[in-house]
Amino acid sequence: MDEVKSGPPLPKVEFRSVPEMVAARAAIEPARAAVRFRTPSGKWADLKWADIDARRRKIAAGLQGLGVERGDAVAMLSPNSPEMLIVELAVQTLGAATAPIFPGYSAQVLRHCLTDSGARVAFAGSAVQQHQLAQVKGLEQIVVLDDQPLAGAISLKSLENSNGSIDVPRAGSDDVAFLLYTSGTTGNPKGVELTHANALSQQAAIAAMWDVTDKDVFLSYLPWHHCFGALFERLMALWHRALLVLDDSRGRDLDRLYTNFFEVRPTIYFGVPRVYNGMIARAQKDAKAREALKGLRFAFSAAAPISEPAFRFFEEMGVPVLEGWGLTETSPCATITRRSDPKRAPGVVGHPLPGTSVKLEPIPEFAGRGEILVRGPQVMRGYHRRPEDTARVIGKDGWLHSGDLGEWTGHGLKLSGRIDGVFKLANGEKVSAGEVEARILAATPLLEQAVVFGSAQPFVTALCWVAGAVAQKYLEDRGIEPPSTVPEVVQVPELRRAIVEALQAGNLLSPVHYERVRRIALVAEAPSLETGELTPTQKMVRAVSSRRHEPLIAAMREEAAHPSVLDIVRRGDAFQNA
């Protein structure tokens, strides 16, 4: 069980810092476009490599004039933008760390992250974010990226025109480059300190496994306050000098997303299952959308296992679906699959990266499964200002305890959910909520989120959220006029029957009967960041779901009749409330 599996040796990393890597790439072909983005007028514009490097050096000098030094943290509150990229590189040039924070956080969480970072200087994307920052004590200077500062702030242009330039990056490989905050599913977000060596080793390792080149085009919506977007996707494009196109749909506006897809024609796409489900629903009824997807060399999915139908949709079009596993604490990737792998399947996240070792620490209650431990150059330096938490997850032997359950298969590591998601049924049997949730979502694309319950219950239950666009497409294909709202959609008998039948089939894949979900509740209200039920990385916050939907959970547990509750393991007519 605790056998160590290791990747091949890590190729030599030639650079000491991310800005040094960018300077070297810019010198190859200065006039080449590095980033493409939409201007306020709606037209595409390019940011060239030479401009990135020159502006990085000038802004670094301006930051130095504000007193930013090696070891400092500089906060960033902004949606993705070319200016955000340049400023982050400027911060890192000085040996300081960039601390991007999600603008959609509540005031309380935002204040926690900013205070915890210790930042004295912060950048705001616009006046909206400037107002948010103004509520936080301890900030000495706010700089506004869109050059429209309100009172008390300065513009990026004035900082950039300070008549200075720093020619040589002052950061070293062991300096913290990124201070990234975790999703906060179990409490306040923690700051993860990732060094230049962490970030660059990740790209050197992936380059040895994937065939990304300077001919590739990325269409990117993944937010840069999170490791998946900032270190995995964005840094990968820069490492290979591929074109990074900023998708202003932000993964939310499907019409804009496809407009950008048609115009950009990306060759590589990174996303999460929720976005893929919406894209597929459109492509199934729009030939133009389907043809655009066929232009991808591969698609990568993370954050949660992609559903079996979504996986097969891409694979049958000739677009390989690759998956990986890791945490913010591992920069973020520890294992990935490759296009050359003989067999890929949803939830199987491949083998260790070069230079990385992975092992499973046995958990007696879960035969064949264990906690995933990682050791390698991508493992974080530690949690910011939290030495006790750091010591709790990183042992003296260098192994990072991930808190995730996994098992080895013939085709690589397979995920089984979080250890803290394990609960004990009333009969004493232990169940992994994450594994049951993955099985539910893999059973049907009609559902896009699930939260499983069962602690001290006689059986497993689940709150489920319908994927609106997929559900409407399902009904249209069967000649049923779909209702316009989700609350109406979840009451359609044909849809409810399809969900029940899919989950009954999914239950048959459970290795033991007590892990089978007996009852589900269809939640009409979509989870959101505003209610705290959803994190910025689209993860469900179990504690919030428990509070918000306690009547539904109680109805499932007590086997009471409820119009939103469906029986999966049949006890009479499963559709009597439909």
Q: What does this protein look like?
A:
This protein has 578 residues and is α/β, with parallel strands linked by helices. It has 19 helices and 28 strands. It is globular and about 75 Å long. Helix content is 33%, strand content 23%. Among the domains are: 15-197, 3-Layer(aba) Sandwich (Rossmann fold); 425-567, 2-Layer Sandwich (GMP Synthetase, Chain A, domain 3). β14 (298-301), α12 and β15 form a beta-alpha-beta unit.
List the helices and strands and how they pair.
Elements: E1 5-6, H1 18-28, E2 33-38, E3 44-48, H2 49-65, E4 73-77, H3 82-93, E5 97-100, H4 107-117, E6 121-124, H5 127-133, E7 141-144, E8 153-155, H6 156-160, E9 176-181, E10 191-195, H7 196-207, E11 217-220, H8 227-240, E12 243-246, H9 254-264, E13 268-271, H10 273-283, H11 287-294, E14 298-301, H12 308-316, E15 321-326, E16 333-336, E17 351-352, E18 357-362, E19 370-375, E20 382-383, H13 387-393, E21 400-409, E22 412-418, E23 422-424, E24 430-432, H14 433-443, E25 447-453, E26 460-466, H15 468-477, H16 486-489, H17 493-507, E27 517-523, H18 542-548, H19 550-557, E28 565-567
Parallel strand pairs: 2-12, 4-5, 4-6, 6-7, 7-8, 11-12, 13-14, 14-15, 26-27
Antiparallel strand pairs: 1-18, 2-3, 9-10, 10-20, 15-16, 16-17, 18-19, 19-21, 21-22, 23-24, 25-26, 27-28
Helix pairs in contact: 1-2, 2-3, 7-8, 10-11, 10-15, 14-17
